[in-house]
C-alpha cells in the first residue's frame, strides 16, 4: 500500500501467516453475512445504548470505554466484581455490529481511525477495527477504501515505532495491514461469492 512503512527486521509476518489470516477473515465475513438477520433480531442488554451515528464522542466512549477515552489509568476495582462496560467499552458483539448500517460502519470506522491517528493502539481499538472491517460490504465505497488505506498506513507507522517488539501489538498491527492490503486491495472490489 502506498505510504506504508516497511516492516522493521523481524516484524514481518510470513506469507503463510498472511494467507491464513485472510482465509480466517473471509470465513468471519461470510458467517457474519449469513447470520446478520439472526443477530439483528436479538435483544440488546438493557445497559447497551448505541450512540447516534453522528455522535463521534459517544462512539469513541462506547467502543473504547471511558478509561481509555479519558486516558485514565485502569485501576483495579476490587469492590466491583462485574464488568462496567461504560468504563471499559462495549465489545463489538454480533448483536451490536449487526444493527449498524453501512453508513454507520463507515462513520464509526472513521471516528476510530481519527482517534488512532493521535492515540496509542489498544486491544479494544483492535477488536473494533477488525469487527468493522468484517462488516464492510463490497463493493467498497471510495471513502471506505480511502479510510482503510489510511488505517493501514497508520498501523505501519506505529509498527515502525514499536521499540520493545510487543508480540501481541505487532501481530495486531500486522493483521490489520495484511487484511487491508491482501483482502481489500488484492481482490477486485466486486461482491464476494456467498
Summarize the structure in words.
This protein has 194 residues and is mainly alpha-helical. It has 8 helices and no strands. Helix 5 runs antiparallel to helix 6 (123-135), helix 6 (123-135) runs parallel beside helix 8 (167-184) and helix 7 packs antiparallel against helix 8 (167-184). It starts with 14 loop residues before the first helix and ends in a 10-residue tail after the last helix.
CATH topology of the domain at 15-43 and 96-189: Methane Monooxygenase Hydroxylase, Chain G, domain 1
| Largest sheet descriptor | none
Following the backbone from N to C, one meets helices and strands in this order, namely: HHHHHHHH
Level-2 CATH architecture of the domain at 15-43 and 96-189: Up-down Bundle
Based on helices, strands and strand pairing, what is the structural class?
Answer: mainly alpha
Overall 3D geometry? globular
Strand content: under 5%
GO biological process, one term: spliceosomal snRNP assembly
Main location: cytoplasm
Family: Belongs to the gemin-2 family.
Subcellular location: Cytoplasm; Nucleus, Gem
List the helices and strands and how they pair.
Blueprint: H1 15-41, H2 56-69, H3 85-88, H4 94-97, H5 102-118, H6 123-135, H7 142-161, H8 167-184
Family: Belongs to the gemin-2 family.
Main location: cytoplasm
Organism: Geococcyx californianus (Greater roadrunner)
